[in-house]
Specification:
Elements: H1 10-20, H2 29-37, H3 41-61, E1 64-69, E2 75-80
Antiparallel strand pairs: 1-2
Helix pairs in contact: 1-3, 2-3
């Protein structure tokens, strides 16, 4: 899947949320979140990319970005102002 159809596991979303709140972001990112959240290399890269999107949303809109993790695997992003 690509683009907006792409679904992330709960652990990827949690890692992305945690990483997006780190200022400055820890280095090196990928090995750290792999170990901390038990992710594969691909999942860690997805979490890193997703965390950047969360940071952009916050800066652009000054909003809180909430992720709703649904048990069926369909994750939804909601923006609250």
């Amino acid at each position: 899947m690509t683009g907006t159809d792409h679904e992330h596991s709960e652990s990827v979303v949690q890692a992305a949320q945690w990483l997006s709140e780190q200022n400055p972001a820890p280095q090196p990112i990928i090995p750290l979140i792999r170990e901390r959240f038990g992710l594969s290399a691909l999942e860690a890269c997805e979490a890193s990319a997703l965390s950047n999107r969360y940071r952009i949303y916050r800066k652009a809109h000054g909003l809180v970005v909430a992720i709703n993790v649904i048990p069926d695997g369909e994750n939804r992003v909601s923006i609250e102002g």
